[in-house]
Amino acid sequence: MNEDVVRAIREKARVLYEGKVTPHRSCGIAIAETFGREPGPYQALRRGGITGEGQCGAIVAGGLVLGEIFGDPDPTGAVTPLLREAMMRYRAAIAARLPTGGARSEICNDLVARFPVFQSEERASFCTGLAATVAEIVAGIVLELGGTVEVTPIPPSR
Fold it and tell me: What's the superkingdom here (predicted)?
């Protein structure tokens, strides 16, 4: 049954980012909403931190979701063993599985440099795949480490 949940999470992220069935969400917001998180702070992840010069927003969002799930709720608390394990697995999975299209880094501008027009269908399809893969990786890690993942309906646009 966990495989069904992971597939459903991947599909939800794909639909949210793709923007054909529901209005498009940015990469960070698509990940946040996929996992039932408030999207507000994730807006800063759009297009690699707005400027394109930061790490892919989907990748950053995946790490933040893991932090919300496995982190210590005490702001002065230490890193929990589960969060450390989740992040180690996350970084390894991102390095092994994320379709970067040959980019030399995880910086947004590097990832999309091969697309001369940012607003192109090709670039949007590439980034849709990135967001879907990140969601799949995060869901798998959460479930492997004993957490729960709920597949909820796509939230309405605000």
Answer: Bacteria
Task: Enumerate residues 6+ apart whose C-beta is below 8 A from 144.
Answer: 89
List the chain domain ranges: 2-144
Any bridge partners for residue 55, and if so which? Answer: 107
Of 7, 70, 62, the closest CA to residue 32 belongs to 62
Please list, in sequence order, all residues whose beta carbon lies within 8 angstroms of the beta carbon of residue 87, skipping any fewer than 6 positions away: 63, 66, 67
| AA letter at 75 | P
pTM strictly above 0.85: yes
Spatial distance between the Cα atoms of 65 and 43, rounded to a whole number of angstroms: 14
From residue 112, alpha-carbon distances to 48, 93, 99, 108, 124 in Å are: 10, 20, 12, 6, 9
Distance CA 75, CA 128 (A): 33
